[in-house]
Amino acid sequence: MRYAGQGWEIPVRLDNGPFDHLGGELLANRFEKAYEEFFGRAIEGLLIEAIGWSVRVATPRPEAEQMKRVDAKRDVVSEHTRDIYDTVDGAVVEAAVIDRGALIVGDRVTGPAMIVEEQTSTWLTAAQQAVLQTDRCLLITRRNSDLAHTDSIE
Predict the structure, then answer these.
(1) Upper half-sphere CA count for residue 76 (Cβ side, 13 Å)
(2) What pTM was computed for the model?
(3) Quick one: how far is CA 110 from the chain centroid?
């Protein structure tokens, strides 16, 4: 807020709650008090204007649940393939093309593979695998790491 025509604004806080005609008077009083604290005196008789408004809105968020990791339950194989240049191998490889929307929780896709959906694609090199989790995220790990658990499903 500022006095009309001035080039210096002072932030003034609003209370939570309804803003009626008394709210306008209270806001003007708060501005004059803030102005006096900042500049040493208020100016009587000048119009007060609000230059900009900012609103902070928040809502309580529930505690985030820790997801329990889902291990691979089924290997997904696709008959659809395409040639893709793999920058890790430095060569063109034949990669499976998997529709992400068709995956169910616990499905494992091993690379080289391209998991496709409408807005994006996920590339898995030959050294990677992905398992669909309960929150629909893909847990991508190296095929030979301890995180990969088993390399085959019994």
Answers:
(1) 28
(2) 0.56
(3) 27
- Terminal C-alpha separation, the chain: 71
Contact criterion met (CB below 8 Å) for 127 and 142: yes
List Cβ neighbours of 72 (8 Å cut-off, separation of 6 or more).
106, 107, 108, 129, 131, 149, 150, 153
Token couple for 110: 């091993």
pLDDT band at 87 (very low <50, low <70, confident <90, very high): confident
With the CA atoms of 140, 142, 147 and 148 taken in that order, what torsion angle do they form, in degrees rounded to the nearest 10? Answer: 90
Q: What is the DSSP string of 27-55?
A: HHHHHHHHHHHHHSS--TT--EE------
Q: How far apart are CA 111 and CA 143, in angstroms?
A: 9
Token reading at 78: 């696709």
Query: How far are the Cα atoms of 30, 42, 74, 108 from residue 103, in angstroms, in the given order?
Result: 59, 68, 10, 9
The total number of residues shown for the chain amounts to: 154
Q: Domain extents for the chain? A: 2-49, 74-148
